Structures are given as C-alpha cells and as structure tokens.
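Reopening this one. Same input as before:
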Amino acid sequence: MRALNLIPTAGEPLIVIDDFPQLKRLAWNRPGKRTIAEPDALALYERNWDMVDRDSMSDKERRLLDDLVNRYGNGVLHV
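Same output, byte for byte:
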C-alpha cells in the first residue's frame, strides 16, 4: 500500500488522486477532493476510459489500475 501511496482507513483504502495523473484528469469534477476510495477509482477509470491517455500512463499508475482490476473487477477492466 505504501508503494502505491494508498491511505489505509477503517473502510476501503483511499488513493491520493494527485499522485496519479490520469486519475486526476478523470476526477476534474471533484475540486478539493484529495482522495478517493479504491472501488470508486476503478469505477471512474471504467466510466471514463475513453479519456485515459494510456500511452502516457506511468508504470506506477498502471500497477495501481492492475491492482484495482484484480481486487475489485475480478480481473476484468469493464470498458
């Protein structure tokens, strides 16, 4: 969790939005929101996949997305 900048909470772990450029791009309509729950982040990626610039996605963000897909999407990115 520390390597991916995840924040442990009593509920779902939170992701720091600013640490992941493509996620930050997708969360433009959440001004002032610094974190997002993991399942919500996956849902945001899936709903807005056409806005993700996959070629400029960092390895760190790819690992995050892979982890989210495996954990919450049963290994399938629903796009």
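So the earlier flakiness isn't reproducible anymore. For the record, The chain is about 40% helix and 10% strand.
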